[in-house]
Amino acid sequence: MGWQKKILRVNLTEGTCTPEPLNMEWANQYLGQRGLATKYLVEEVDPKVDPLSPENKLIFATGPLTGTPASTSARYSVITKGPLTGAVACSNSGGYFGAELKFAGWDMIIFEGRSDKPVYLYINDDDARLLPADELWGKSTWETEKALHRMHQDPQLRVSCIGRAGENQVLYACVVNDLHRAAGRSGVGAVMGSKNLKAIAVRGSQGTQVADPQRFLQVVAEKKRILAENAVTGQGLPTYGTQVLMNIINELGALPTRNAREVQFEGADKVSGEAMHEPRGSEGKPNLVRNQACFGCTIACGRIARIDKEHFTVINKPEYWGASGGLEYENAWSMGPDCGVDDLDAMTYANFICNEQGIDPISFGSTLAAAMELYEAGAITDEHTGGVPLKFGSAEALAKMVEAVANGEGFGKDLGLGSKRLCEKYGKPELSMTVKGQEFPAYDPRGIQGMGLTYATSNRGACHLRSYTVSSEVLGIPEKTDPLVTEGKPALVKAFQDVTAAVDSSGLCLFSTFAWSLEDIQPQIDAACEGEWSLDRLMEMGERIWNLERQFNLAAGIDGSEDRLPKRLVTEPASSGPAKGMVNRLDEMLPEYYQLRGWTPDGVPTPETLQRLGL
Amino acid sequence: MEIPVTFKLYASLMDYLPPQAEGHAVTLQVPEGTTPIDLLERHGVPMAEVQLVLVNGVFLSPSQREQPLRAGDTLAVWPAVAGG
């Protein structure tokens, strides 16, 4: 078990909700969540389809461990063809929604078609209905959740929804659940908006079941002890969250600054995880209020933060005075150093707006950084921006532009296109810090070589969460490697990619792997699911998923020629820090990576590779 | 002979910085031959809590932490932390 063995197919064009059995043959090959939903996508969607057309499908998928007593078992993923990239999109979120969906008896929801009018999906165990969302359309994610609780008289209803960004089809709009957890990347929220689907509200009472309860509970307890006793997952992450990386990555000379022109930011300390603990502002209280856990998580890395009431962003806006989802490292980087901004409260405000209106902060911040460089170069003027000077370092510009994107107004429409389209529109495509159309996150590949290969080969466009080699290259988990060398990185990236694909298909959080290896996760899957789930089987499955995603992208017309980094990263040397004088040496890594993958020199899986993986 | 070095402690190790530190950093005059381990011990930093040690941004493995610092070096130290 582990699975509920039931999926819900929702045809938005016809207005129907139809249960069907989970394809267990596929589940045995792809486990769940990322892998299994990608299999459904590949089987059911033409890779060449317009991502925002009714022909695209949108899948919400849990894993077999989602909602079980295993630690970090909160995860679900949203899978579709992404509008930002045209590639496979798979965005993973925590919170409580995924577990609730499982409790209602569903492994997965597949949305197809497009509704004529705004609707939301209401699920109460087996009862699944599409209901009118006219009064929700135009509302923020926060207002939507509140309204659904009121409409159904159920404060425990779990909600996953889009804000105005998704409705307006901002190409990096995300899906937000539980107020401030998000399936953040690749514009999955824009696909939801294109289908006139505002929200999913779910209530479940069926619990979860596992194949061998006694063995499962025993192994889960044993593995929870490892998380508690590990210094990173037991102390570091709960206390400082991911934002502790700000000073580390800056010291390392790998903090992309001012649209990646530089690799170190003079204001890093002011916007770091440590700074979030320091009393500041008029009230003498810190930015950080407390940490927060997702369902079942014993790490609790989430940040709950507040903005100083006298900060310019929230004067006369009491709705933003309360505690809400605070800065994670990637968001802090994109809206801080990458824009040259060192104002923690302004960044927190922008983060609140991103949560409130369903915007991916990584893509937004990086797009704004590109706009700031375009402004500096004179390609964008005050006329374009409505009189807002888009200067690097301007907290005012950050606050005004996040509002403009949220409301789909003025220059916000251009920013909502993402960095690639924005830079093309204003005649300087080389200023876009993207791969396959998606903005890269908070690690400069000139200072961390493996991340260059990670970004270049990520199936969903530039992303750190497909092979987080920072773990090895910076933090020494599981083993320390030198961030400045390319030797060994192709094998490292491939191993991280395959393991991550397996973890992302289980229902568990990738952050557990700061303490757990796949050897710790495997017995939990094996006890929960029918059949024998060995380590080898999971590793092969991870590789199968990676190749399946690659096949989808190739069929969509995205080939090896797009496994490339922005020109800046491979031609403009780092100006300071340990990597001073270095560029990313992708060309040294890519051929070996293709070889290790069993791909042709052009990056196409060979027939032998596909056969070996059963594809 | 003494040399200047910058000493930085982060996250939960910040409490071990001397009073004259500004933010996370303090510039110190230390005897030539001082190693990262010497500096950490001198400030009472529990070695069991030391995880990530960088000199001028470059990682030092545990065996390299007994090599002398040079004039102008920046030593930055963290406990076990991670992110992503």
Give a structural overview.
- The complex is a heterodimer of chains A (615) and B (84).
- Chain A has 615 residues and is α+β, with helices and mostly antiparallel strands.
- Chain A starts with 5 loop residues before the first strand and ends with a helix.
- Chain A is 38% helix and 13% strand.
- Chain A is built from 24 helices and 19 strands.
- Chain A has a six-stranded mixed β-sheet, with helices on both faces.
- In chain A, helix 17 packs across helix 19 (489-503).
- Chain B is mainly β.
- Chain B has a single domain, classed as Roll (Ubiquitin-like (UB roll)).
- Chain B contains one helix and five strands.
- The model of chain B has no long low-confidence stretch (mean pLDDT 95).
- Classes of the chains: A alpha+beta (615), B mainly beta (84).
Summary?
Chain A has 615 residues and is α+β, with helices and mostly antiparallel strands.
Q: Can you give keywords for this protein?
A:
heterodimer; A: 615 residues; alpha+beta; Aldehyde Ferredoxin Oxidoreductase,  A, domain 1; Aldehyde Ferredoxin Oxidoreductase Protein, subunit A, domain 2; Aldehyde Ferredoxin Oxidoreductase Protein, subunit A, domain 3; 3 domains; 6-stranded mixed sheet; 24 helices; 19 strands; 13% strand; B: 84 residues; mainly beta; Ubiquitin-like (UB roll); 5-stranded mixed sheet; 5 strands; 31% strand; globular
Oligomer type: heterodimer
CATH architecture of chain B: Roll
Rg of chain B computed from alpha carbons, rounded to a whole number of angstroms? 12 Å
Domains of chain A, number: 3
Q: Could you state the CATH homologous superfamily of chain B?
A: Beta-grasp domain
Write down the domain tally of chain B: 1
Q: What is the straight-line distance between the termini of chain B? A: 43 Å
Strand order of the largest sheet of chain A: 2-1-6-3-4-5
CATH architecture of the largest domain in chain A: Orthogonal Bundle
Q: Could you say which structural class the secondary elements and strand pairing of chain A correspond to? A: alpha+beta
CATH class of the largest domain in chain A: Mainly Alpha
